[in-house]
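Lay summary. Proteins are chains of building blocks that fold into shapes, and those shapes determine what they do. In this project we predict the shape from the chain. Here is one chain we studied, written as its sequence of building blocks.
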Amino acid sequence: MSRSVNIGHATDASLESVPDRVAIVVDGTPITYRQLEALIGKVASALAASGVGPGDRVALVDLGSALSVATIYAAARLGAASAQMNAYLTPGELTQLADLVGARVGVAGSRYEANLRAALDGTVLGEAEVLAGVANSSSAAAVGGGQDTALVLFTSGTTGLPKPIFISHDVVTDRLAYYAKPIDPDAPQQVDMMSAPIFHIGGTLGLLISLRSGKQTVLLPKFDAGEWLELVERYRVAQTFVVPAMLRRILDHPRFATTDLSSLQALSYGAAAAPQDLVRRALAALPHVDFTNTFGQTETLGAYAALTPADHRRGDRLGSVGRPFPGVEMRIVDPSSLEPVAPGGVGEFLVRATQNTTSEWLHTGDSGWRDDEGYLFVSGRLSDTINRGGEKFGPVEVEDAMRAYPGVIDVGVVGVHDTDLGERVGAVVVASEPMAAETLLAHCAFRLASYKVPEYLVFAPELPFSALGKLDRKALRSLLQDAPRIRRERGNAGSQGTDAEDVATASRPRE
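And here is the predicted shape, written in a compact code that computers can read:
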């Protein structure tokens, strides 16, 4: 694809080469590229009749569906852009997002029409209105392209109101050119699956790449581990993307061992930190699969670094998110002074690349370090940094230390407000069996500096995750708000020593 094109016609090559091959599968219904083109035309016609034109934003509230897929392409062809909103938001939250981008026309799946109608001061098109319309001519020229906005996605909003990210046609085109493969009408069609929500960059970008390559994409509207296993087996899925929380549920599912996953060739994971024990478990369970840890964010249109299948087979960097892609410039700086940190020092990741939504250096908000081979290690988000009496550190190293204790399945760590020190460390632990908090925290004390050892600890049946698979640290703080502080006694010295405050006394986990 050349520059200054309109992504609304990014399916044209597939339509011309393999029109009667299946493009998407939704709820067991196959839709060919020819049928998808007709649906795109109908959506474009309905949007145009509602006054949508160049520069407009179309609120899109749905999960993975034929309607949502067609809306992305149809809005772009009109010179507008779909603004994909989390389908689980309330009408009030949807109103805020619509106001942020100026959306006055929206498209919603049948389950979400009522919420969007309550949120939007304008026209809302549901499936009935769209399907009853007449398709625009498939040969109609698209309006706009290049630096015009093609997509609007929103950040996860785990620390506040989601922020809109405006993505141009050129940036999307660049990513399609990088990832999409030439279409071979004579070769067997590869099957991908969209496991991530369509309003996540991993869902949207993966979908666009697959359809540009003439592949078949099975849509999983809402993740369920059992359904994921069933669909991989039934449709012989070769490639998909999951977040670590999904991967753990897949491996834990009682049907995992008996499901035929021999078709699966490549599995990418990302969007949240992946515990090393989980990665090792996945590698052992699926030895025939190429694993890739992708690292990036919406503003970088997905990954700008990756831990490759070869890195996974090497096995000694599983705690890393990999190395930056060719053409990606990167700096690691002190977030206060913006001066480069010393080699191996921890700082904020700054990234500049053509795939970014800005041409300037992007402050990613991620902190971490780079080893002497160029591998990146993430210590956490700057917004998640814990400041205990002036000692600043990320939650990831505390989480890693706690996961190393036998019986700990997962853990989430946050700073808990404290009037004396500003923050103290709190942890929510998911355990496979009852365990004493005292021994778990003694384990931490031998591996961490004393100020990093949790002083608030609760056990829970599972950790709270957002719809995008990210750990919800606001929810963690809510779980910890009524937990008593764990007093520590002088003298329980681990390898790092302790301060004069405490060794744990806390309740056992709930059965």
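What the prediction tells us: The mean pLDDT is 90.
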